[in-house]
Amino acid sequence: MGLKETQAYQFLKFTNLSLKNLGIREAVVPPVSPFKEYPDAKKIKLFIDEFPPTPNFFEILSKRRSKRGYKRAPLSLKEISLLCYSAQGVTGIAGPYLLRTAPSAGALYPIETYLAVNFSSEIEPGIYHLEIRDFSLALLKKGYMGKILSELALGQAFLGGASVIFIWSAVLSRTISKYGSRGLRYIFMDVAHICQNVLLASEALGLKACPVGAFFDEELNKFLELDNGESVIYMATVGK
């Protein structure tokens, strides 16, 4: 079977835009809430009191490398706050939209951020959800999750030594309700913008990071207790 027979190629061609298909949708997908929150969860307030001095931006770019060897060293609340801010911190308001550090098609922001905090001097180990509107972490599960996440990521052992693991999911309907199937392209662009922000922020803070795209999708979704309209699409480790 050649390239043109693959589902990937067929999807790319199916979602091409032309003057003939503008506005045409193969299905009606109703919009969903722009925010996911866990109101009953214990929350840890994140904070940015000031931005720390960092190297020159182009020096940061030149030094960025994917690093997988970590010291199991703790990160502070401030370091984790800065990493979360780089991912999806709110930087402005435009009508009903909370504009953020990373761009999003149509300002729809389909990406949800979860953190597995493995080693921190101020935050207990566990799985957390980044709550955008009040910039906090909602505790979902207590305990060190490095080992199970390594197993869910096809046995990549370095996840167990990372101080934190970012897990990004997509609430598909947020984008697909407006853009149809082509919206899936935009969703992957969105998460790539967010991940790169975290990678560069890690370098700026003297930390190391590595994006992760290989994992057992359904098992990871089940571990996070996501519904069928939300699915994990990317991860990244950060540590010292």
Uncertain stretches of 5 or more adjacent residues: none
The CATH architecture assignment turns out to be: 3-Layer(aba) Sandwich
Within the largest sheet, what's the order of strands? 1-6-5-4-7-9-8
Q: Tell me the number of helical segments per DSSP (H or I, 4 or more residues long).
A: 7
Q: What count of domains describes the coordinates? A: 1
Q: From N to C, what is the helix and strand string?
A: HEHHEEEEEHEHHEHE
Please report which band the strand proportion falls in: under 5%, 5-15%, 15-25%, 25-35%, 35-45% or over 45%: 15-25%
Distance between the termini: 45 Å
Keywords: Membrane, Transmembrane, Transmembrane helix
InterPro entries: Bacteriocin_Proc_Enz, Nitroreductase, Nitroreductase-like, SagB-type_dehydrogenase
Domain Nitroreductase: 62-240
Transmembrane segments: 152-172
Question: In summary, what is this structure?
Answer:
Helices cover 30% and strands 23% of the residues.
